[in-house]
Design brief:
Elements: H1 27-30, H2 48-60, H3 65-81, E1 86-88, H4 90-103, E2 116-117, H5 118-136, H6 142-146, H7 149-160, H8 177-180, H9 202-216, H10 219-223, H11 235-243, H12 266-285, H13 295-305, E3 309-316, H14 322-336, E4 346-352, E5 355-361, H15 372-391, E6 396-398, E7 401-403, H16 408-411, H17 414-428, H18 437-449, H19 465-496, H20 500-507, H21 514-521, H22 528-535, H23 537-543, H24 555-567, H25 573-596, H26 605-614, E8 615-616, H27 627-643, E9 663-665, E10 692-694, H28 695-707, H29 715-719, E11 724-729, H30 736-747, H31 756-762, H32 773-777, H33 780-783, H34 788-792, E12 807-808, E13 820-824, H35 832-845, E14 853-857, E15 874-876, H36 881-887, E16 891-892, H37 896-899, E17 901-902, E18 910-911, H38 914-928, E19 931-933, E20 936-938, H39 944-953, H40 955-973, H41 982-993
Parallel strand pairs: 14-15
Antiparallel strand pairs: 1-2, 3-5, 3-8, 4-5, 6-7, 9-10, 11-13, 11-14, 12-13, 15-16, 17-18, 19-20
Length: about 1000
């Protein structure tokens, strides 16, 4: 056999391309047997993301023929040619930085160094400019007089082409080769280029270029579906708009001899140019809400609208996650509530993670900033109260009885909270649960044997879940709900009464023995002596100098519940519920007059103060040097320093973030991670192992537990799930259309594992690995299930029923999200490596599917406020060893994902595409390390680190492992020996893709 000399980029000199004829291999030759999933070849289909984006455009622009045709004819071509192509940042800045480093020059300014795809750049400019143009048509403006449907189509087409030099010409198969050779060069400016040997002018060259680009992008049919060739009559109109969408560079206003010959009138062209320039400015400049204050926007909008329209905004100084979304919506409502049936004063135009930009009428009334804190509180209440009633999130049963998260008292008055507690108790202590009544009886009998309880009382009763239900409910409403109310009254009295007078005031506070009073209400007075003795067990133990205590278990309620059922036999679950309602009425009638005498804080004062500090309107924008900001910083610094003091004067501070707000100890039922964890914000050597949390961080955790958590897991149970957060950042904002699109996709993300179906999507039955951009984009159907909601509501046992195990925000459809994040559970008893498998892959894949920036982190707090804070497209925050070995770095530019990157060192080492590396490594892992056991199929991701290390040091070791692994599989399943070559050959095929 003849062999060719290996190329420099061959992965191993010992294997040449001719040693195995991969194209000639087929499943029959290899005897492919895949127990972990079939390898069916999927037929070509329309992108799911294209369907969702079209639906979003239709929802935002019903009965708009222009936008409907754009979505049908042009949008598919943009997703094909412009996603993954750099418009801002990307390869251009990387090449500039590399050249400057080699020449010893300082790095260039970073204003536009952040990644932005060409697709996002076009849509982010087109959609808001179209909305503004639609608004101008309703006013007495030149746009209304000069722009009809065809002119509008020309304006849209001209803007789609305005960055024609930034397209990747290698993707256009119809383009002549000489155009494809001039892509991505710092030395070549296509706008000023005349090809060597050509006698054409620059304009002629661009006319020639448009002859290929316009049909390829579907613009010819968009301009006139019935006569696609008509666009050529308006080629110079398109060029004129494309040239002049920018204000300073590469413009061309030459309409004289040898210049452009547009068909439209000057005034119409100028109006379209202003719209294109506004679109380009929005897509390029707006990275923060306050960027709308730049003079360029006011000038262009003033010219277009005759001074009738301008831009406004609100901004938020922090990004907490869910809380930030709610604040954005509350402040947005404060703007849009000023609109009337005849006047649209504020129209949301752009959505950023930390604010919203509005199209504002000149005579719009100002927003009342003082009302915003209360609006935020009411928004939180309205979103959460219904969810809490329905799901009873934060309720659970512990050894001491029923417990609930402290935040319930902030959403409900006592009666409503007791009703929620009743539903939660009956739901948790359902008839399928094992009763602990007999063990409570045995505890009482043990105390009786010690002489703590009278010997002549009968404390014997059997297991009965109804006893548990009545006892646990009775305890939670009397000792906990009423007890919490009494504690709040006590705290209030301490705050308003100085010194010893506070004790006197507290002593006057009535504290009824509700258990005894309810016993009398149930006509069980004969058992009051036993109840009183049970309630004083701990005191009696001390008097008798005996060890032990009740441990907080409501033994009095268990005894009373047992006697009630003994005297009222035959009680059904509905009877128990009716009894609970009677108990609620009795307690409220007894305690309401006591509570009404005190005007207690509602617990939302910190949220109100925080809102007033972080939300800014145009007239209130503060710089970091303003006194208010300095005061907050100094207060946070003072708290931090005081937290390190020993003894008196020590200050509790939040373990999640620096915060000048009130701090409390974390409770297991109220947070999504383990309270007993080390933090450097707590004194070493102290006796308290629990972390502290500020009221604002506590509200964020509460919102996640209520609006995101699809299980009842809290504290350690949630943290042990090893959820990893995947954050989505826009570049640099969402429009109403793209935001609606992402909301549709986000709510239906259901794939939490890199399984054999995904592997088979990239590796064919013939073991051909397809790692093309198009194939990654068509993987959207595996990741997003548009029928997820219906499948979730199917009854148990239905084959189509699907459980969504993701941790994502459930938000009303009529309220736009401004920041998206999701957490994925890896599986049962996962390793740290397994917990990163799917989040890391999605982070690398989603920029070419959803056109967003992504960050993966273990941190529940967003690592960045917005996408402008980091230049790259993907950031893997402290990924485990396997991913560091495979990917070599943790930050990736947009073009890196599928093209790889080049080091800036003198050797300029070329690295392969990280997404391809990860996909190939996962496919190899599933082929080599997956196994079947008694419990079923196991992907065995814990061995990915070993695989990664082997791939880095000696790929041949992987082949050895693969063959030995299949030998074991053959012995287990009695597979013919010839099948043992499958894994090695598929591994070789995939390794070639690296």
């Amino acid at each position: 056999m003849t062999t060719k000399k290996p190329r420099d980029d061959d992965w191993n000199d010992d294997f040449s391309d001719e040693e195995f004829d991969f194209d000639a291999l087929n499943p029959d030759d290899l005897g492919v047997v895949d127990d972990a999933g079939d390898r069916t070849v999927k037929s070509e289909r329309q992108l799911l993301t294209l369907q969702l984006l079209r639906q979003s455009i239709q929802a935002n622009h019903p009965n708009d023929a222009v936008m409907a045709d754009f979505a049908e004819l042009v949008l598919p071509r943009l997703l094909e040619y412009a996603i993954g192509v750099t418009a801002k940042g990307g390869w251009f800045f990387e090449a500039l930085d590399r050249r400057n480093a080699q020449e010893g020059k300082a790095p260039v300014r970073r204003d536009n160094a952040g990644d932005q795809s060409l697709n996002t750049h076009i849509l982010n400019g087109l959609f808001p400019a179209n909305l503004i143009e639609r608004r101008l048509q309703q006013l007495d403006t030149n746009a209304r007089r000069l722009i009809d449907e065809f002119e509008r189509r020309l304006g849209v087409a001209g803007f789609v082409l305005h960055d024609f030099e930034k397209f990747d010409y290698s993707r256009f198969l119809s383009l002549p080769e000489h155009y494809q050779k001039i892509t991505r060069s710092l030395e070549t400016n296509i706008r000023k280029l005349v090809l060597a040997g050509s006698d054409q002018t620059i304009i002629d060259e661009h006319r020639e270029l448009f002859r290929y680009l316009v049909p390829a992008l579907g613009i010819d049919r968009f301009l006139d579906p019935n006569n696609p060739s008509q666009w050529q009559d308006h080629c110079d109109d398109l060029l004129y708009i494309a040239y002049n969408a920018q204000l300073r560079y590469d413009t061309n206003l030459n309409l004289g001899e040898g210049g452009l010959r547009p068909r439209l009138r000057d005034r119409t062209l100028n109006c379209l140019i202003d719209l294109a320039c506004l679109a380009d400015s929005l897509a390029s400049i707006i990275k923060h809400p306050q960027d709308t204050e730049k003079e360029r926007f006011s000038e262009i909008l003033h010219r277009l609208s005759d001074g009738k329209l301008r831009l406004s905004y609100h901004s938020i100084a922090e990004n907490r996650g869910v809380l930030t979304n709610i604040v954005n919506n509350a402040v947005m409502a404060a703007h849009t509530d000023l609109n009337t049936s005849t006047d649209c004063h504020y129209q949301p135009l752009l959505y950023l993670p930390t604010g919203v930009i509005y199209l504002m009428a000149r005579d719009a009334p100002p927003v009342d900033a003082a009302s915003l804190p209360d609006r935020v509180v009411e928004a939180i209440k309205s979103l959460c109260a219904g969810e809490l009633c329905q799901k009873q999130t934060g309720f659970g049963r512990a050894g001491k009885g029923m417990k609930y998260a402290d935040y319930y008292s902030q959403f409900f008055e006592d009666r409503d909270l007791m009703q929620v507690a009743l539903s939660a108790t009956l739901k948790i202590l359902n008839p399928r649960k094992k009763s602990v009544a007999q063990s409570r009886s045995e505890s009482l009998q043990q105390f009786q044997a010690k002489g703590v309880l009278s010997a002549d009382f009968d404390f014997a009763f059997e297991d009965d879940i109804r006893i548990d239900q009545i006892a646990e409910f009775g305890d939670v409403v009397t000792r906990k709900i009423w007890g919490d109310r009494r504690d709040r009254i006590t705290t209030h009295l301490k705050s308003i009464h100085p010194g010893k007078s506070a004790k006197a005031a507290i002593a006057k506070l009535p504290d009824p023995n509700l258990v005894a009073e309810i016993a009398s209400h149930w006509q069980l007075e004969d058992y009051l002596p036993q109840i009183y003795e049970i309630q004083h067990i701990n005191e009696t133990l001390k008097e008798l100098k005996l060890k032990g205590n009740t441990g907080g278990v409501p033994l009095d309620w268990y005894f009373l519940a047992a006697q009630y059922l003994k005297n009222h036999p035959g009680q059904s679950e509905e009877d128990v519920r009716a009894l609970g309602i009677q108990v609620i009425d009795f307690i409220i009638n007894r305690t309401a007059p006591i509570a009404a005498a005190y005007d207690l804080p509602d617990g939302w004062d910190d949220v109100r103060a925080w809102t007033s500090q972080v939300v800014s309107l145009p007239a209130q924008t503060q710089t970091p040097e303003t006194p208010a900001s300095v005061e907050i910083f100094l207060k946070e610094l003072e708290f931090y320093q005081a937290a390190k003091k020993a003894g008196r004067g020590r200050q509790q501070i939040c373990s999640i973030s620096h915060s000048p707000y009130s701090v409390s100890e974390q409770m297991e039922s109220a947070v999504l991670f383990t309270p007993q964890v080390y933090t450097n914000k707590q004194m070493l050597g102290g006796s308290n192992a629990k972390r502290n949390i500020s009221s604002i961080a506590g509200v964020e955790m509460m919102l996640r537990q209520i609006l995101m958590n699809q299980t009842q897991a809290t504290g350690k149970r949630f943290e042990d799930g090893k959820y990893r957060y995947l954050y989505f950042y826009p570049t640099y904002y969402f429009t109403p259309e793209t935001n609606n699109f992402l909301a549709r996709a986000y709510s239906n993300i259901a794939q939490t594992r890199f399984d054999t179906n995904l592997r088979n999507h990239f590796v064919s039955p013939q073991l051909h690995a397809d790692f093309s951009r198009e194939n990654y984009q068509t993987a959207d159907a595996f990741l997003i299930d548009v029928d997820l909601k219906r499948k979730q509501n199917l009854p148990e046992g239905d084959k189509e029923r699907k459980i969504d195990r993701t941790f994502k925000l459930a938000y009303p459809e009529n309220k736009p999200l401004t920041f998206y994040f999701i957490a994925l559970p890896p599986g049962r008893d996962p390793t740290d490596t397994e917990s990163w498998v799917m989040p890391a892959w999605l982070a690398l894949a989603f920029p070419n599917i959803l056109d967003v920036k992504t960050v993966v982190s273990e941190s529940p707090i967003p690592p960045y406020r917005d996408g402008a804070e980091f230049e790259e497209t993907v950031f893997l925050d402290s990924a485990p060893q396997a991913f560091r070995v495979l990917l070599q770095r943790d930050r990736f530019r947009l073009h890196h994902l599928l093209e790889g990157w080049q080091d800036t060192d003198p050797l300029q080492t070329q690295h392969p595409a990280p997404l391809n590396i990860l996909t190939a490594a996962y496919a190899i892992h599933l082929d080599v390390n997956a196994k079947r056991g008694k419990s079923g199929y196991d992907a065995n991701w814990g061995k990915l680190t070993e695989l990664a290390n082997n791939l880095e040091t000696s790929p041949l070791y992987v082949f050895t492992t693969s063959v030995s692994g299949h030998v074991s599989a053959m012995e287990m399943h009695r597979v013919p020996a010839k099948y043992g070559s499958i894994s090695m050959i598929s591994t070789l095929a995939l390794m070639r893709k690296l």
